[in-house]
Amino acid sequence: MQLVAFLALLLALAWPLARGIDAVMAGRFALGARIEAPLYRLAGVHAGEETGWLRYTVGLLIFNGVGVLAVYALQRLQAGLPLNPAGMAAVAPDSAFNTAISFVTNTNWQGYGGEATMSYLTQMLGLTVQNFLSAATGIAVVVALVRGFARHSARAIGNVWVDLTRATVWILLPLSFVFALVLVSQGVIQTLSAYVEAKTLEGGTQTLAMGPVASQLAIKLLGTNGGGFFNTNSAHPFENPSALTNFLQMLSIFLIPAALCFVFGRIVGDLRQGWAVLAAMTILFVVAAIGATWAEQQGNPALAALGADQAVSASQPGGNMEGKEARFGINASALFATITTAASCGAVIAMHDSFTPLGGAVPLVLIQLGEVVFGGVGAGLYGMLLFAIMGVFIAGLMIGRTPEYLGKKIEAHEMKMVSIAILVTPLLVLLGTALAVSSEAGRAGIPNPGPHGFSEVLYAFSSAANNNGSAFAGLSADTPFYNLMLALAMWFGRFGVIVPVLAIAGSLAAKKRLPATPGTLPTHGPLFVVLLIGTVLLVGLLNYVPALALGPLVEHLMLWSAT
């Protein structure tokens, strides 16, 4: 019932939101255009001038590079800056570098405890601002790609500065403002006051961390960022006070990725195309959610056997509650874990390290698929469209016909770019994991021996390279080795995909549109949905099967054979 209600509300909200996003990004929001005009003049931007893919890409890289420098500087200088009531010291250079890359790439990997490391100013001006700008980057890239499909014989794919401005000011900012107010009304804190000393029931004292939480939390979820204000992320009662806020947070994570599927259909002039992509995402998501819930409801057989020895019920009707927030239980925790790893968000309400081997394998596999099951804001859709191009190419090989997608021939150049974009993240994940487990510096951060420790390392590099940001936990990753290696994985995992995607956008925009013929593969029906799902599983997952066998799969066999 929870899953059905979630999907029904998601569709009901995503449909009208898609109309608004389409109008904003196409420049049909008249009031917005009048307000934007003086800002563009001030910045020296010619709003009516569109550029080719190369100039668009360079602008995007410069924009995000400046973001890295700004966030790094804020962390290193925060001890002497205002809005630091707890007197936070400067962040260490390697941790500051990792965090700067993390938030600029929409990964939000956190090797630090937020309330013990970051001042209010750093949280607001550095991390929260980048939550907006990294999400806007994803929206700009996917809109540019879709324009490539929609246009023909064109050299331009858009204006990067206009796209970033519109995505930030008219989509992300209003949604986050409204959602932040809703969260405050439900008990999420929003204050600049100093930390509070409270008396405990035992008569001792406890320091309660405070801060401007709701404003960061809203865009953390809507922008599929995931970086929590507090170390325990959305398991903290100041970030997630109730079952209602928990449900709203899950809904907000998928909201924009789902709406962008309909935006895709609107821009290319065929809503069925958007429905087909959304259907493939939804099927994969539902299977994953059911699988994770089932695995966690089975519980830990070793604990069941121990209970039997001690004359306690061995059936474990409560399932595996280890690492779960007791307020939400197994079902909500498993659903949240599935949503956050499917959507490249990284927010957590339960420790994935404490999931059963198969339960923990579900979020790991969702990340390794390339974050295309809804995925990050913009990133999920352009990742799925890469698999769609790959799918029609494979289908074309089967029947000996030049592949086409949305009236555009898929030729050698597009397939080279698709191959680079699809292979760059497995390369980063597998090489990074291999280096970590074979080097002394990498093994020093693994407290758990055997397959579980391997799973922690594999999850960390999968999360970084695919820009998810959640962690298995258990891995001591706040070290110079992991801060540097994971930062490199995050940067190249983000822009190693974006650059080929924009190259594809430019190539497609320049092509002529071909009329549909009886031999054209329909890309809006059930057959294409099955083809797309098969391509995602075969091409996206097979790279990782040997690594998965060394981690969660062998751990599952060891756990159940031990009883």
The gross shape turns out to be globular
The N- to C-terminal Cα distance equals 34 Å
What's the alpha carbon Rg, rounded to whole Å?
A: 23 Å
Total count of helical runs of at least 4 residues? 20
- How would you sum up the major sheet? 2 strands, antiparallel
Order of SSEs: HHHHHHHEEHHHHHHHEEHHHHHH
Amount of helix: 55-70%
Q: How many β-strand runs? A: 4
SS content category: mainly alpha
Strand content: under 5%
Query: Runs with pLDDT <50, length 5+?
Result: 311-315
Mean pLDDT: 93
Q: In what order do the strands lie side by side in the largest sheet?
A: 1-2
Describe the structure concisely:
The protein is an all-alpha fold and 563 residues long.
Describe the 3D structure.
The protein is mostly helical. It is globular, with a radius of gyration of 23 Å. Helix 15 (412-438) packs antiparallel against helix 18. Strands 1-2 form a two-stranded antiparallel ribbon. A two-stranded antiparallel ribbon has the order 3-4. The chain contains 20 helices and 4 strands. Strand 3 and strand 4 form a beta hairpin.
Layout of strands and helices, then pairs:
Blueprint: H1 2-25, H2 30-43, H3 53-77, H4 93-104, H5 114-117, H6 120-150, H7 160-185, E1 196-199, E2 205-208, H8 213-222, H9 243-268, H10 271-298, H11 301-309, H12 329-342, H13 357-368, H14 379-399, E3 404-405, E4 408-409, H15 412-438, H16 440-443, H17 450-465, H18 480-510, H19 526-541, H20 545-561
Antiparallel strand pairs: 1-2, 3-4
